[in-house]
Amino acid sequence: MTQIHEGTLISNVNIIPMTNDTILKGMDLIVAQGKIASIKKIEKSKAGYQLVIDGEGAYLLPGLIRRLFIAPGTGNVQASRFVKLSSAENSND
């Protein structure tokens, strides 16, 4: 039976925390109710989340600036790989 989870999962992303100078490689970040719910490595099934984003090769800086949005540059960067998570804050408006 699949367990149902709330929110968004960004899987296999490299996280640059504001609390130390070590990059957390290949982590899974869960967003619930517009906020980071957890940062950990999920060993079991990643099914059941409302949205799953493959973060392989990407870097995330949680908490740097609350409404940070980095626009994609030129070249072969795909705009679909960038997500504005702050929009989740206003989902109940």
What labels would you give this structure?
globular; 93 residues; disordered C terminus; mainly beta; Urease, subunit C, domain 1; five-stranded mixed beta sheet
In the CATH hierarchy, what is the architecture at level 2?
Roll
Considering DSSP H and I runs of 4 or more, what fraction of the residues is helical? under 10%
When the domains are counted, the total is 1
CATH topology value: Urease, subunit C, domain 1
Count the beta strands. Answer: 5
Walkthrough of the structure:
The chain is mostly beta strands and 93 residues long. It has a single domain, classed as Urease, subunit C, domain 1 (Roll). It has no helices and 5 strands. Strands 1, 2, 3, 4 and 5 form a 5-stranded mixed beta sheet that branches. The protein is globular. The C terminus is likely disordered.
Secondary structure topology:
Elements: E1 8-15, E2 24-32, E3 35-40, E4 51-54, E5 59-60
Parallel strand pairs: 1-4, 1-5
Antiparallel strand pairs: 1-2, 2-3
What is this structure, in a nutshell?
The chain has 93 residues and is mainly beta.
